[in-house]
Amino acid sequence: GCGGSLINNRYVITAAHCCFKDKDVTLAFVRLGEYDIHHTKDCFRGNCAPQPLDVEVEHIQRHPFYQNKNTFDQDICLIRLFEDVEFTDYIQPICLPSAIETDEKHLYNMTMTVAGWGSIENNPKKKIPHVLQEVDVVGRPTDVCSSILDLEMDWENQICAAGKEPAQSPCPGDSGGPLMYYNTTGDSRRYMLMGVVSAGISCSNRDPDTNPVIFTRVANAMPWILSTIHNID
């Protein structure tokens, strides 16, 4: 499975390699407002959230420059939902960033958060958590990622980050999920969607110095995101 982020009342953003088109497998719906996949309702000390909302998928649009999951470039996709989503205390859109907020100097050593239900071991069939997990990662120089991953990539469209602590990093199943920064400047405190989980080496290697993770940079895809939403609507 893959994660994603609600960006308005009709669209979810995820990784392009999650938006597969296969004769045997089709992305049928998106689940919103989920936390514990083992329970119909999520409750804490007697207080329960409404049941998660499953919304049918109307249209899938990968970035036109995405080629395949071996290059990771422009690994981003928009999912248009079949109907408008009503926002609640448990279902809210995440804010989108500007280019200035996600330039490399701004992100270097910045602590950000990744969330998902990805495996907590490298084998995706083992230890899949039933509750939403989160992990802090730190922005790294792109030349470090390029050297470690040994891949020629367009770093203007990507973010490099690594686990803040040993044994903590995104794993299989976290693809498409959000790389978030909690912005405390100004009057409003809000999470911003800086990137989308794209690829890494192996989550069995939990050394943050040798196992960075690649994220698709959302800010550089904003012209495509806005034009796609406008043109389809």
UniProtKB/TrEMBL annotation:
The keyword Hydrolase applies. Residues 1-230 form the Peptidase S1 domain. PROSITE patterns: TRYPSIN_DOM (PS50240), TRYPSIN_HIS (PS00134), TRYPSIN_SER (PS00135). CDD domains: Tryp_SPc. Keywords: Disulfide bond, Glycoprotein, Hydrolase, Protease, Serine protease, Signal. The keyword Signal applies. One of its GO terms (biological process) is proteolysis. GO terms for molecular function: serine-type endopeptidase activity. Transmembrane segments: none annotated. Gene3D superfamilies: Trypsin-like serine proteases (2.40.10.10). InterPro entries: Peptidase_S1_PA, Peptidase_S1_PA_chymotrypsin, Peptidase_S1A, Ser/Thr_Proteases_Immune/Dev, Trypsin_dom, TRYPSIN_HIS, TRYPSIN_SER. Belongs to the peptidase S1 family. CLIP subfamily. This is Peptidase S1 domain-containing protein. It comes from Homalodisca liturata. The lineage of its organism: Eukaryota, Metazoa, Ecdysozoa, Arthropoda, Hexapoda.
